[in-house]
Amino acid sequence: MKERPVLISAIFLTLIVELILMVLVYNKVGTERLPSQIGRLIFQLILIFWILSSKSNVGLFLLAGYHIISGLFGMYSKGSSALLGQILICFHLIIGVLIYFHDWIENKIGIKNVG
To answer: Is residue 115 situated within a structural domain?
Structure first.
């Protein structure tokens, strides 16, 4: 975790939140939304492996864009008025910014990139 700690932390947090949401939604509505959630998780995992294996800027852009667009679409969804919906909107927007600007953030807080 010495290399790109802000990015790795944001990715780790993303995966934890995604898995928790999958369990919560499954417990509430059953298997109805499970295929779309698994699809989202697989899409994110593909991007994450692409980013971590090749340090791809395109992958970073796509993953950050995914989170920012998810946050923006969440603003106009039915569940956005609930507290959990608002938290998820903020989470997606913040994680998207963290992923996109992780190099700048690491430089500002004095973390030197190894790679």
So the answer is: no
The pLDDT profile of the chain, 115 residues, written as one tens digit per residue, is 467 889 999 999 999 999 998 898 888 888 888 899 999 999 999 999 998 888 778 989 999 999 999 888 887 776 656 787 888 889 999 999 999 999 899 888 877 655 4
- Tokens representing 81 are 């008025």
Tokens representing residue 20 in the block? 């928790």
In this structure, is residue 85 part of a structural domain?
A: yes
Q: Assess contact for 40 and 48: CB atoms under 8 A.
A: no
Residue 90 located in a structural domain: yes
pTM of the model as a whole: 0.82
The residue among 49, 69, 70 whose CA lies nearest residue 59 is 49
**113, part of any domain:** no
